[in-house]
Design goal:
alpha/beta; Rossmann fold; 3 domains; five-stranded parallel β-sheet; three-stranded antiparallel β-sheet; elongated; binds adenosine-5'-triphosphate; binds magnesium ion; PrkA_C; Protein prkA; Prk_AAA; PrkA/YeaG
Length: 631
Amino acid sequence: MSILNKVKNYREEERRLRWEGTFADYLEIIRDKPEVAQTAHSRVFNMIKDSGIEKKDGKKVYEFFSDEIFGLEEAIERLVEEYFHPAAKRLDVRKRILLLMGPVSGGKSTIVSLLKRGLEEFSRTDAGAVYAIKGCPMHEDPLHLIPQHLREEFFEEFGIRIEGNLSPLNTMRLEQDYNGKIEDVIIERIFFSEDKRVGIGTFSPSDPKSQDIADLTGSIDFSTIAEFGSESDPRAYRFDGELNKANRGMMEFQEILKSDEKFLWHLLSLTQEGNFKAGRFALISADELIVAHTNESEYRSFIANKKNEALHSRIIVMPIPYNLRVSEEEKIYEKMIKGSDMAHVHIAPRALRVAAIFSILTRLKESKKQGIDLVKKMRLYDGENVEGFNKIDLEELQKEYSDEGMNGIDPRYVINRISSTIIRKEVPSINALDVLRSLKDGLEQHPSISKEDKEKYINYIAVARKEYDEIAKKEVQKAFVYSYEESAKSLMNNYLDNVEAFCNKNKLRDPLTGEEMNPDEKLMRSIEEQIGISENAKKAFREEILIRLSAFARKGQRFDYNSHERLREAIQKKLFADLKDVVKITTSSQTPDESQLKKVNEVIARLIDEYGYNSTSANELLRYVGSLLNR
Ligand SMILES: Nc1ncnc2c1ncn2[C@@H]1O[C@H](COP(=O)(O)OP(=O)(O)OP(=O)(O)O)[C@@H](O)[C@H]1O
Ligand SMILES: [Mg+2]
């Protein structure tokens, strides 16, 4: 019922938004709200801008894209600032076809479809409202009615520049239906809809021999020629090509570089001059954003061809590389799985992360920088701290190759492998090892990976596996402690008490017996050794901690478990080291005794309740870690 209500509300909303009036009424609207008369490019830009811009690590994140597109903040920022923004200001880039260039399954189509769906919605808002001459198949801009010689005056009064001439069809209708009185012409508000072919179009080339330019620019309507007597009567022409229908909005041109040249020339004249030729008419003005996409090799061979030079200079290419951050890649997989019919399957926690590690490794290029291997680079890219490297190093790494992310494993491959694992395994649960195995097996059948790359990739599977081993061990160890955070906190407080007594040459008081004791040197060392602090360095380290502690106290801040990075690491490692033996015994005993069994069951319950496992994947994890620790 609620869905039917929603449909009803939508219908009512549309009815409420509807508007119809004369051109004279329309002029009053744009006097108040000149943005109504904006160009298609400007509307797209405002749509993106209005969704909001967030600042993250000094970078701009355009929220318009951020629910669907992950890890491409730089590419998106470039797309907006180098294309949409200047195009909205009527700068020259607007006169070029926007070509998204990137590797397969890198999100190009997703970006285009976000723009299309976005425009449909935006045209239903106040800020994105669009008006057109009623009954015009191209939803012509009403301002085209203003004659050329009055446009300068119009600009002075309204502050709006008019581009384009009244189309042959509307010129004729103006004479015949309105007696030449532009103020009487009926104007209506329109709502973009790809389904209804209003303001949004898609052109996809088919066989070049059979494809007709009519698909793009419309065609003569033979059924009405007899009635109107001539092919050059605009009433005998159907303005129903994609370019006609996408007027005022945007058109997606699929596989642009595969299409026949004659199609491209039409586009060029449209983008360059704002008009195109259809049938036997004078040029037809149109205002629309044209977006196309292609991959790198197709693009290279296109520009290598001298014949394409003129076209080339009228295209603006925006690279859309693969995402290079592990955490973002995980989000891509989650999104794709949520939208598929695998959504009911249990995918063990960390399985997608491990797949993401593999994918990112295949996309990264080895750095020439000292001391940095691919795994460290991957971590830095993902915003992790890597000992000995800082933000500046990260920026240098990112600048080292301009074409990083243009090849490697694509997200669709990973999702396909995951789904084939699910089908083969016949259980509604898969884990990280299943995924890695399947990624590896799939490489054999992958059609477009060279032998050389295949070897490299198999090696990356092994690296991802090693990463997983560490992740798995940590996960289990964490689950063994009743409350990990609590234990860490109390261990740290204990350490701090001892450090304080040590530095101030004080004694500690035993909380139970009240007896005075010396600082517990053994405890302090057992923590410090975890991060390699030598006997000679211990005093300096303890003093540094104490200084930090008092700095916090002075500012009235609480010094906690996360306040000192190295200390946190030491505490973490110490907790794990203590646990290692327990974990080892408990998980690998063939015949666990009663208390061991109880412990194992507790851990499994915790993995399920707190870490997102199910009983199958939790048992698998425990067995695997047991075998790792017994090696
Ligand atoms: N950076 C990304 N963020 C979010 N989703 C992504 C990203 N890259 C790829 N995807 C997802 O991968 C799938 C394939 O993407 P899409 O079809 O947009 O790629 P494409 O670049 O058009 O590929 P092709 O060249 O094969 O046409 C989609 O489900 C898309 O959502
Ligand atoms: Mg695509």
